[in-house]
């Protein structure tokens, strides 16, 4: 009986640890409005939305890209979809709800890819360049109601910043403002 109890306690401990460990190292922010997007430029009177799209096939994949300027800052969003990532021909979209902030709704959404796609956001001539260690990229988990931070690569060159990350799905994406708590 003692051996059975020891085994049951060990199994229960493993299950608790395994269940709890899935979030180790995972940073989240609860609620859609719990974070603010990195402000690209503080330009008065500018707050428009933008839409970029391209139809891609499973065999070829491809690149969807869109560029625009806000004041003196030039912004480019690029989504690189490798061959085999799509299950069928899809219209891949980049919707920027506010061109003064670093956030986008990538579509089709929701969508899960067969292999990761690479998303790059480039900003040229930023008036204030943040510390690359302070940059966090996150996606919004609609079911959990929280932003989930993902690994990203940040490159700074003078007043230019490039942020790159890989994802296996599309939803809302944001670069979290490093000046916000």
Written overview of the protein:
- With 181 residues, the protein is mainly beta.
- It is 11% helix and 48% strand.
- The strands form two sheets. A seven-stranded antiparallel beta sheet has the order 1-9-8-12-6-5-2, with no helix packed on it. A five-stranded antiparallel beta sheet has the order 3-4-7-11-10, with no helix packed on it.
- The radius of gyration is 20 Å and the shape is globular.
- The N and C termini lie far apart (53 Å).
- The model is unreliable at 1-25 (pLDDT under 50).
Give the key terms:
181 residues, mainly beta, Chondroitinase Ac, Chain A, domain 3, seven-stranded antiparallel beta sheet, five-stranded antiparallel beta sheet, 12 strands, globular, disordered N terminus
Q: Describe the largest sheet.
A: 7 strands, antiparallel
Strand and helix order? HEEEEEEEEEEEE
Specify Rg, calculated over alpha carbons. 20 Å
CATH third-level topology: Chondroitinase Ac, Chain A, domain 3
CATH class: Mainly Beta
- The overall average pLDDT, rounded, is 77
Distance between the termini: 53 Å
């Amino acid at each position: 009986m003692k051996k059975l109890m020891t085994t049951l306690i060990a199994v229960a401990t493993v299950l608790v640890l395994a269940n709890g460990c899935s979030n180790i190292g995972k940073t989240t922010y609860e609620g859609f409005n719990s974070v603010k997007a990195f402000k690209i430029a503080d330009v008065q009177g500018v707050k428009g939305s933008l839409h970029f799209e391209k139809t891609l096939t499973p065999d070829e994949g491809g690149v969807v890209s869109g560029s625009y300027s806000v004041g003196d800052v030039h912004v480019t969003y690029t989504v690189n979809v490798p061959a085999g990532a799509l299950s069928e021909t899809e219209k891949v979209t980049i919707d920027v709800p506010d061109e003064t902030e670093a956030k986008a709704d990538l579509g089709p959404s929701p969508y899960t890819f067969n292999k990761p796609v690479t998303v790059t956001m480039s900003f040229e001539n930023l008036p204030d360049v943040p510390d690359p260690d302070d940059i966090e990229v996150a996606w919004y988990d609609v079911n959990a109601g929280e932003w989930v931070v993902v690994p990203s690569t940040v490159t700074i060159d003078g007043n230019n910043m490039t942020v790159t990350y890989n994802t296996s799905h599309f939803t809302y994406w944001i670069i979290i403002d490093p000046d916000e708590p």
